[in-house]
Amino acid sequence: MTKASLPKTINAAEAAHFGALAADWWDPKGSSAMLHKLNPVRLRFIRAAVDAHFGSDAKSRYPLSGKTTLDVGCGAGLLCEPLARLGGAVTGVDAAPENIDAAKAHAALSGLSINYRAGEIAAQGLGQFDVVTCMEVIEHVMDPAAFVAELVRHLRPDGLLLLSTPNRTASSRLFLVEAAERLGQVPRGTHDWHKFLTPEELTTLLADAGLEVVDMLGIAFSPMSGLHLSDNLALNYILSARLRR
To answer: Which residues, other chains included, contact 207 with Cβ-Cβ below 8 Å and sequence gap of 6+?
Structure first.
């Protein structure tokens, strides 16, 4: 595949938007505060999916030991670092060079060895991985189908894909776009509700790329429980998938 023919999925405006937030990414009270709250919820799902897929011991501290992990759209490394602490050999790719600079600096301070790359995933020359993660990214790319194809191209035949994204519902428009952005919980301009994918649409995209969904849960919010895994998919959802057998 020549450089000119490499798939292009990065939306330059979206990359610039998130790159401008790089310096603030690791501040739990800053512009990425919502991601800091989301991360533990994602990790609970990821840990359970990894244990189920690979048959690892649920009590093990290092379920990703000996496994390669790719986080696509990694930002400044909020997910990469805990994945590394779970024992994975982690690579993170992001569209914004500013985010990768912030990720490298934070990993160095944390004493973690993570392979960070900036730019189109197709241009990185990476191989296949045991685990591919992609959290809150697909709604920001130029071509979701081409993007999913790239995720699959980097997934080993017996690998596990983990993906989360907002649902396109009246609830998500009200709470994730209107309320969250107006109240400063999420930076203005972060979301375009029309680009959100429903579970049915995303399941079809994955199926067209040769994947089957193994598990899917919602990420819901309540005043008592905060953000939590739920059967309610109305706001946001997270799924695990594998190549069809």
So the answer is: none
- CA-CA distance, 162 to 94, in Å (whole number)? 17
Whole-structure pTM value: 0.89
Give the chain's mean pLDDT. Answer: 87
**Domain housing 69:** 3-243
Q: Distance (Å, rounded) from C-alpha 237 to C-alpha 229?
A: 9
Q: Which CATH number does the domain housing residue 130 bear?
A: 3.40.50.150
Distance between CA atoms of residues 238 and 56, nearest Å: 21
- Residues of the chain short of pLDDT 70, as ranges, are 1-7, 10-23, 31, 177-191
Looking at the structure of the chain, the number of domains it has is: 1
Residue 140: its pLDDT value, please? 87
